[in-house]
Structure formats: C-alpha cells, structure tokens
Amino acid sequence: MKIVIGTGQFGEDYAERLAARFSEVTFSMALTDPDEVREIVDADAFLGWPEPEAIAAAQRLRWIHVPGMGINNTMLSPGIAESGIVVTNSPGAHTNPIADHVMFFVLSLAHQGRRLLDDQRARRWDTRSYELQLRDLDGSNMLLIGLGGIGRAVYQRAQSFGMQVSAIDPTPTDVPAGIREVGGLDQLDALLADTDWLVVTVPITPGTRNMIDARRIGLLKQGAAVIVISRGGIVDEDALAEGLRSGRLSGAGLDATETEPLPAESPLWDMDNVLISPHCSGVTPSMWRQRQQTLEDQVRRFVEGRPLAFICDLERGY
Fold first, then answer.
1. Residue 127 burial by CB count (10 A; 0-12/13-18/19+): exposed, middle or buried?
2. What is the number of other CB atoms lying within 10 angstroms of the CB of residue 49?
3. Which of 99, 176, 193, 215, by CA, is between 20 and 30 Å from 286?
4. Can you give the pTM of this predicted structure?
5. Per-residue pLDDT tens over the stretch 119-177
6. Mean of pLDDT over the chain
C-alpha cells in the first residue's frame, strides 16, 4: 500500500514519522506539482490538495484526504464525482478559532477598531469624535449564510452578545434551539432587509458562487456589514466595493477573497471600513494538532479497512 503526502503542514519528515507508525505502508512526500504527478501514479491514497493533473495521472487512487475543510480545489478535477475516489476532509479542527475571528471582525467594525488604533499611534485622545460612531451589538440582527459547524459556533458567540441570529441553509442539521429562523435560499432576499451583520460561512460551490451580488447587497439593511470567513467568490467583490463606497454598507471583514492573495490593485485594500486578514483565521496551535490527529486516525482506518470518517458529498461539493 502506498500513500503520498502532498502537504508540508506537518514537516518535511512527516513521511518518515508516519512510516514508523504504519510499517505496512510506503509513504512518500510530493511537495511540487511534478512530484505529485510522478508519485500518485501507483498510489492508493493522497493526503493533501492534489492538482487536477495529478489526479488524472493516478491509476489506482482510492482515497484523497484534505487536511482542511474546503474541497473546492479537488472538485476542479474533471470527473472526480464519478471517479469512485473517496474524498474526506477535516471538519472541527478550525471551527472555534474561525468563529472567534468572526467576532473579532464584528467587534472591530462595531467599535471603530481601525480608527482607535490610528488614534493610539498618533497619541490622539478625541472622545467626541466617536460619539454616535459605535454600534450596539445587543439586539442587532445577524444572518448566517451556512449553518454548519462554523455557523453554529458563530451563533453561540453572537447570542452571548445579545444578537438575534437567523440562518440560510438548505439542509440544516443540529439547529440551535435559540436561533431565530432558518430558511432556504428562497428566503434569503426577505431576510436580508433586516440584517445588520451578514456572515458568509458556506462552502464555495457552483450554487453559491456570487450568491451575494449587487442586487442582494442592495437588499441589505442600510449600514449593514459583510463578513466573509469561508471562501471568496461567494460575495461579488466589485459589488461589495461599490456598496462600501456608496455608504450602503458600513464595513466588511474579509478572511477569504476570490483571488488569493487579494490583488494589489483591489480597491478593498484602501478602504478604511474594511478589515482584511490573509485567510489565517483558523491557524492556531490547536487547529494544527487536531488536523494531524484526524489525518492519522483516518490513515489507521484506511490501513485496517474500516470505514473512513468525514466523507464529502462530491455531488454537493462539500
């Protein structure tokens, strides 16, 4: 049995460390595209994010484990849904830090975090300039686009601030008892009108791409803020920038953008009411530990012929 490791997340000696635990498996590292194509040819499994060219070269591949949540890059491979290859991911490892990051955006935007930092650096004490500029969270309305693990964790934090939380999710599970409303996509337009905080936690799929476009930004409550924490491409960034310029939106927090890194020419960089983080919201020590533990648990299942956990639905794309 051969398993290819296509990520350096756990160190370049990870193949040797795994081989010491799973002596019946041949492990190899493939950290470049040419290495992936060469090593995957006779591999039974691949741990990482294989390029479409590598998947096309595989002759006996049975399993791909993505040591993260999003499988959108894997879904770019033609015919992957019909290939019979099982794709798994690592939910849960990043849930809490990402939900914390959402609230970091919310609090920073609500309490003028950027202005406060600028004033601190300038040693400027100007209390009156902040009058009527801070926002109450208690009683404000948050709409989650997606009520998976991250969405539920955001709900737990938001409700502790007294926020009223609704969600859009076509197939909700484990709906928190205190959530105000959960609707399908057909209810999105109606819920936008009362939304102060729009939080995008849904995966990127053909069905969610540009879901929040110029028309829907226009439906949002005047002064709403938009937070993107899952994947770029769900919110139309041109429409987002225009909504911010026009004053329709009060602010935005972006941890994911359609093109990463965000191009230098994007107007979002220069907007005072935009907070940008480089897709780093989940990278805490606990996340790395949990991702590694999940990966090794999955390898053990695969080697022993037991059912894998966290199998993705390739028809849905997540």
1. exposed
2. 18
3. 176
4. 0.93
5. 999 999 999 999 999 999 999 999 999 999 999 999 999 999 999 999 999 999 999 99
6. 97
On whether the CB atoms of residues 48 and 31 are closer than 8 A, the answer is no
Rounded distance, CA 223 to CA 244, Å?
9
Tokens of 110: 């609500």
Q: How many residues does the chain have?
A: 318
Domains for the chain: give ranges and CATH numbers. Answer: 2-92+285-304 (3.40.50.720), 95-276 (3.40.50.720)
- Pair type for strands 181-183 and 63-65: unpaired
245: tokens are 């310029």
**Is residue 99 within 8 Å of 284, Cβ to Cβ?**
no
Predicted pLDDT of residue 239? 99
Q: Give the DSSP H or E segment for 149.
A: helix 149-160
Q: Which two tokens stand for residue 90?
A: 């690592």
Residues whose CB falls within 8 Å of the CB of residue 180, separated by 6 or more in sequence, listed in order:
164, 165, 166
